[in-house]
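User: We ran a pulldown and think these components assemble together. Before we commit to crystallization trials, I'd like a predicted model of the whole complex to look at. Sequences follow.
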Amino acid sequence: MKMYSIILVVLLQSFVAAVFSQSTKDGFYISTVKNTTKFEDVNMDNYRSNPKNKNGEEMENPSSEFSSKEKLKKIERELYNEEERNYMLSHYRPRAMAMVRANDGEIVSVTFIFNNLEDPSFIDTKKLRVLRKKIMAENSFDVLFNGQRAASGYIPARISLFKP
Amino acid sequence: MKKELFHAWQDAYYPGGISQYAETGIVNIEFEAKVFKDLIMQMGTYSAFFKTETDEEKRINSEYGNWIESVKEDISILQDRSVYNYWLDLFNEYNPAYTSPISNQLTGFDSLNNIISNSNCF
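Assistant: Here's a predicted model for the assembly, 286 residues in total across the polymer chains.
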């Protein structure tokens, strides 16, 4: 009976490890669930209050405008050559989820997401850290809620990466 | 703007227009428009689920984003009505501004399906 329990625990651990795994490197929590691998900014949880108006009421119906696709392309080209960009785009559907300060549109945290990444170590996290730093420094979003600007809070925004 | 244009499309597509759904079904109309907006968005905020203050909100935002991205990759995934209506139910629960009785006439999200099937973008 005890032997069966041990085997069951080992099998269960193997199953959990196969479906979900997590580690930390260069300021990212790296986790894989099913076919999606996230390099989550370790600071992301510092920016989770919902967008509110000056009366402290939660705001609805967001719309947003990215500051400059050209600036983003320039950053990508500085860090990754054409072959790297094309390979990642065609194989891993790379994208970023930025946490945006709702009152001024500044990007305060960036998480990277890839699909079908067989081995997370394929991604150079040191380079990813530089990419995160540059995206935060050189890009922003103009975010409105029903046409009004928020007074406080944060909102996640998607950024497509390596688009030609 | 894109969402408002989609509302105009819904108004033209559904016989009798969308004003008949001002009470029962407004949540279907709004959610369908938000899914459309989120599907065509490359840079910006997901409009249906954007709150992340609680662990539950963060989980829903992340899972909704995964669903939208998987639909962008393979549009046939959108045809799974049970999944679409799972998100519709959650949208009704988590967005008090749009909460209403769900219209069973609109659970097929036909105007979204029609515009996608006539598009060469997917």
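Chain B is about 55% helix and 0% strand. That may be worth checking against your pulldown data before setting up trials.

User: Thanks, that helps.
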